[in-house]
Amino acid sequence: MNNIITISSLSKTYATGFIALKNINLEVHQGEIFALLGPNGAGKTTLIGIICGTINPSAGHVVIDGFDHITHYREARSRVGLVPQEISTDMFETVWNTVSFSRGLFGKPANPALIEKILKDLSLWDKKDTRIMRLSGGMKRRVMIAKALSHEPQVLFLDEPTAGVDVSLRRDMWELVRQLQQTGVTIILTTHYIEEAEEMADRIGIITKGELQLVDTTASLMKKLGKKQLILQLTTPLNELPGSLAIEGLTLSKMKDEITYTYDSESKGPTITEVLNLVANANIHFKDLRTTESSLEDIFVDLVDGEVQ
Prior knowledge:
Blueprint: E1 3-13, E2 19-29, E3 33-37, H1 44-52, E4 59-64, E5 67-68, H2 73-77, E6 80-83, H3 95-105, H4 112-121, H5 137-149, E7 155-159, H6 167-182, E8 186-190, H7 194-200, E9 203-208, E10 211-217, H8 218-225, E11 228-234, E12 250-252, E13 258-263, H9 272-281, E14 286-293, H10 296-304
Keywords: ATP-binding, Cell membrane, Membrane, Nucleotide-binding, Transport
Pfam families: ABC_tran (PF00005)
InterPro entries: AAA+_ATPase (IPR003593), ABC_transporter-like_ATP-bd (IPR003439), ABC_transporter-like_CS (IPR017871), ABC_transporter_ATP-binding (IPR050763), P-loop_NTPase (IPR027417)
């Protein structure tokens, strides 16, 4: 699989002595949707800034489509589009003019047909002559995406693309991102909405305290780190579990009225059927059972809290 971005031994220490990034190594595949997750202050913004050429690294290299981001700055930067979290554009300008102007900033010749296509793809065509200040928040965010696409980048960074928008518009934005991916654009997004990454991303990277903790597909993350639970609601509370139920992952609740068996796909312990048989053999009766499975949010919280190694 071809890599559109290769990051090698990337570090950043600010003049204050604050270490924002520590030896980041990452490969982003061409045409994928890659989600970068991390708490505030984890280093996401610094990493994006370095890739986009707005922040200088202290060490390491970034190669974008074969071009080093320092020695071939213009070539590398021209391949990247950035949609910042904050809406920042000339509010008194029209949609058409502001998107066309953004294309010119990269030295690209005028291309009305392309601008028309971008605006139509983003459902902005009927707003092309409208001043930005008169648009809704969702439409303004679409204009920011149009500006980022105006110079035909191969990589599009979306920094919190659905922050502050309602659920309906968020779904529309997700669909828009998928459409962009289908045109061959590589999407890298940061988000605080865990379900957004779980829904959209081909792969996920989790960064905390300036270090990239792991990178994997969503499915693989769920398989390796996701926990499943079998919860039995007892008919009669127990004082303690009998010796026959001294199994790793099996616990009695504080209220003594539930037995929980926690396991994952890599567990070598008993199966659910075997656990239920052990419970029956111990003459323990339950009135209800349910199962749960870790979400990506659970995995993320565990990683940030240091519970997952």
